[in-house]
Design brief:
It is built from 13 helices and 13 strands. It is 40% helix and 16% strand.
Length: 395
């Protein structure tokens, strides 16, 4: 592999060594995990050496093993609906605190072999590493502005980074935050030809002439699958088209059982498919079967699914949920109010009928993804941040 100059240690004349720490990378995949795993891949492509420390359940197999990862085990309350239970966030924070206590000595020992430690929103871990005398640059990525940091560890990190809505929210708190954008692999996530779409639908058991919408999100409260199901039921009741319609829900989570029950009660169980956890590498195939990408969230700090669907040439129908409207505002989709099932259903009907408009939105979305959201551009910004931190002691 040829080494890119940006991926070289600024003073040692060798590849830069970066240790990523992401508790959930081997457990489940959300936006923070997508960023770290995809960024790791891009940094390696540029010539950096990258390691990973992640979490595993207290016992049993690791659900999403990552080759070469060091796994620190601790209790994992996978099916606890922390965002639907009063005070449930405290249980989740306690679970994360337990893991950070166990991970701190492991990361501290490994730190001697790396130039930079990249932490995915684990403030207590940063505090514990500094207490252990770890002086290496620590960059903490913040995935959302409502992070829990009672020890003020954000100020102990060498640098903070974020994307989307989190940047302004954290800067409003007086924190210096670097903008390292989320991105998408526009080679893997790409539009499919008509023949390939037919083949993908045949493999998935979806009628060739069906209107297919897809939502890729964990089954948690703020993703508001409840509203989406109600909107889908209204849409199905109002449509007059003779062809079938299918809603694909890719993702798993603590609300799976009640959502399946709701789909049955609404009379749409036959047209809604719960796909469960879908490997990130398989998502392009799922998107390839669809005509429309949908996002029903109450809030999104960024939303990887949006740019992934755009890269696949799918028009996006989204609620006005934080950053997503900014991603699609230049002609890649439609925006309706948060929580408004009637407006969402109306937009579904209009987009199904307007095939020409859908194609136009999809082409624009693909173009925007290619122009604005590549991993190489984000990786080079991150490498520049690392090099600045490593140069600082000399200065």
């Amino acid at each position: 592999m040829s080494l890119d100059a940006a991926a070289m240690h600024p003073t040692a004349g060798r590849p830069l060594r970066v240790l990523f720490v992401n508790r959930m990378a081997c457990l489940e995949r959300g936006g923070g995990e997508t960023f770290d795993l995809e960024m790791s891949r891009e940094l390696r492509r540029l010539g950096a050496e990258v390691g990973l420390v992640s979490g595993g359940p207290a016992w049993g197999r690791v659900p999403r093993p990552v080759e070469g990862a060091v796994v620190v085990r601790s209790p994992w309350l996978k099916w606890f609906p922390w965002d639907k239970v009063k005070g449930g966030w405290r249980v989740r924070e306690g679970e994360f605190a337990w893991w950070q206590r166990r991970a701190a000595p492991v990361v501290a020992r490994m730190a001697t072999g790396y130039d930079v430690i990249q932490v995915c929103e684990l403030p207590e871990l940063v505090w514990r590493l500094r207490r252990r005398g770890v002086a290496k640059p620590i960059v903490m990525r913040m995935t959302a502005p409502n992070y829990y940091d009672p020890r003020g560890a954000a100020g102990m990190a060498s640098a903070l980074m974020a994307s989307g809505m989190s940047i302004a929210a954290m800067r409003a708190k007086g924190l210096d935050v670097h903008d390292i954008p989320n991105a998408v692999d526009v080679v893997r996530f790409a539009p499919v030809a008509a023949a390939e779409k037919r083949s993908l639908r045949q493999t998935a058991g979806i009628p060739e002439d069906a209107f297919v919408a897809v939502y890729a999100a964990r089954l948690q409260g703020f993703k508001n699958h409840d509203m989406l199901l109600r909107a889908w039921a209204r849409f199905m009741q109002a449509r007059t088209a003779s062809r079938p319609a299918v809603l694909l829900l890719a993702g798993q989570g603590p609300l799976e059982a009640p959502l399946k029950q709701e789909a049955a009660e609404l009379g749409v169980a036959g047209s809604v498919r719960f796909l469960g956890e879908v490997a990130h590498a398989t998502l392009p195939e799922v998107f390839g079967t669809a005509d429309l990408g949908v996002i029903s969230s109450d809030y999104e700090s960024f939303c990887f699914a949006a740019i992934e669907m755009m890269a696949c040439g799918l028009p996006v129908l989204t609620t006005d949920c934080g950053w997503v409207p900014k991603l699609v505002q230049d002609g890649a989709g439609r925006v309706v109010p948060v929580g408004d099932a009637e407006a969402f259903a109306t937009a579904l009907g209009e987009l199904e009928a307007d095939t020409t408009g859908r194609a136009r939105l999809g082409r624009t979305g693909r173009q925007l993804a290619v122009e604005r959201h590549t991993w190489e551009a984000s990786a080079r910004k991150l490498l520049a941040l690392y090099r600045g931190l490593l140069d600082a002691p000399r200065a």
